[in-house]
Amino acid sequence: MTADTTAWEACTVDAVDVHAFRVPTDGPDGKEEDSTLEWDSTTLVLVRVHAAGRTGIGYTYGDVSAAQFVQSKLVPVIEGMSIASPAVLWQRMGARIRNAGRPGVGAMALSAVDVALWDLKARLLDLPLIRLLPAFHDQVPVYGSGGFTNYPLRRLTDQLTGWVEQGIPRVKLKTSRDPERDADRLSAVRKAIGDEPELFTDANGALRRKEALYWAYRFHDEWDVRWFEEPVTSADLEGLRMLRARGPARLEIAAGEYAFTAQDFANLTEGPAVDCLQADVTRCGGITGVLEVAGLSAARHLDLSAHCAPAVSAHAFCAVRRLRHLEYFHDHVRVEQLLFDGTLSSENGALSPDTGRPGLGLDVKWSEAEPYRVHGRRPS
Hints:
8-stranded parallel beta barrel, 4-stranded antiparallel sheet
């Protein structure tokens, strides 16, 4: 054992602090909508882990209760522990929350801590996070995502054409809150962006099986839609399999953003129920969880698409061999640019991790974040 190895193993977590910030949306009348949900704000739960004079940060998007879960269940697991192997702590945290509930808030809290541990390790080694991971890629292609169902047609088309003008060759809008309105919305979007960009739709699980099959053909035949996300609820595995088997051959069925555990992803790959699997690094167990899902997607010969959280996903999904792309989601792009220095911008339709900054390359903009605080205290 070398002296450097001994010093590394002796490096332990000194402290953890947890924060939450609730940022209002910029949608019409302060609201945004998809087919099944209406919201007026986005909450980011921030975890900071400290060791040897360095600080790693991680976060998730969800309710402020995730911050309380981190403090009550996860902080006692990692304080005083070596940060040499985030995966070891990931496994211990997973075991500790068994009775409190692994899926949902438990998985989201664990994800935020896991990301912070990986970021901390990379900062201690003075490496960008991508260099600490088994990276297959040096950038992640993106698709513009927003197109909320309560957007007026002008705002809808302006948003999607804006992404195309930035060089993003694929864009997505929300559908299926009021299906009969979707024809006008899709026609306006296709006319605005032209024939070349790929057009995606997301029903957020609102439709019944036969209704979804009907719209799958209309989406494909009338507007050349190539991606139909959560046409039925992702809990309806039989419905997803039916749509994948009976829908248009060039229209891909996608789901996975609400998968929290490895078994959730395994269920989606059986059959399979999807043409392209999705995973959210802030929900599926953080960086360690993404690496686990990446192995599953490769073994099942399915591409994996990153769901949102671009500042973390840009690093994490470079380590996914069967990488498809990343959802460049309006709300998360806006929130991360507001709260952090070091966020990435799309160039030529992709995000490239900044290899000149350690870890995720992010620093909290405390002054800008403070007005939105709903949990924790600003560091002194």
